[in-house]
Amino acid sequence: MGGYNGQRRQNSVEKYNYTENQWSLIAPMNVERSDASATTLQGKIYITGGFNGHNCLNSCEVYDPECNQWTLIEPMRHRRSGVSCIAYHECIYVIGGFNGMSRMCNGEKYNPVTKTWSQVPDMYNPRSNFAIEVIDDMIFAIGGFNGVTTIYHVECYDEKTDEWYEATDMNIYRSALS
């Protein structure tokens, strides 16, 4: 989905058919973007933020494979490139990233039923280009870049308490990781 070909940002999207071992183009996104983050929820693909070659983006889109169509959804409150997003408790959580001036520690979540964004508490550490995963029903933000250096910090968000907690740091500094 999207990306950078060495000359410009892309809006093209390819899908992989593992039974035929082939890639094919599907409907293009509405916005050219690299450095975005995508996740799936209820059989649809959501892509958030990114960079269009000039600006960090707050635009988001959802892909419906039933009709092979991308639809722009309500934009995020903040522009984010190098962002991480993940589906968690029937919402799309978008955390951290780079707004064009600094790395961010804030986050927001999208509710596809109400089609609205709401703020989530700030992480302890601002970061972009980090890994995100749900483990033991909590969102973990792992490593990344804080604007000065690669970091090895790990923290987790618990929706029940609506708080971030520090977790055990990694042994190695890592950015742009999965």
TrEMBL record:
Q: Which InterPro entries match?
A: Kelch-typ_b-propeller, Kelch_1
List the Pfam families. Kelch_KLHDC2_KLHL20_DRC7
Keyword terms: Kelch repeat, Repeat
Source organism superkingdom: Eukaryota
State the name under which the record lists this protein: Kelch-like protein 10
- Organism of origin: Diaphorina citri
Q: Which gene encodes it?
A: LOC103523808
